[in-house]
Amino acid sequence: xxxxxxxxxxxxxxxxxxxxxxxxxxxxxxxxxxxxxxxxxxxxxxxxxxxxxxxxxxxxxxxxxxxxxxxxxxxxxxxxxxxxxxxxxxxxxx
Length: 94
Hints:
By secondary structure, the chain is an alpha/beta fold. It is built from 3 helices and 4 strands.
């Protein structure tokens, strides 16, 4: 089963970095290898997309998309539309 973690974000690069590192380095009582992290940038102006593009190799489960500023609900919808998972989990960038 593939799990999709959908994260809408807007001008939260510093905290998004912490979130992504935490997701990639999470240790559970069981291992989950079959997951994707779907970031939807909501028109950020803080360099979020540039940082994601430059660090894509650090986060092997990451996929990201952009939208014009429309709010987190639209971001979640875009994330779901582009998710490949059987199970979708929503979290925020913090």
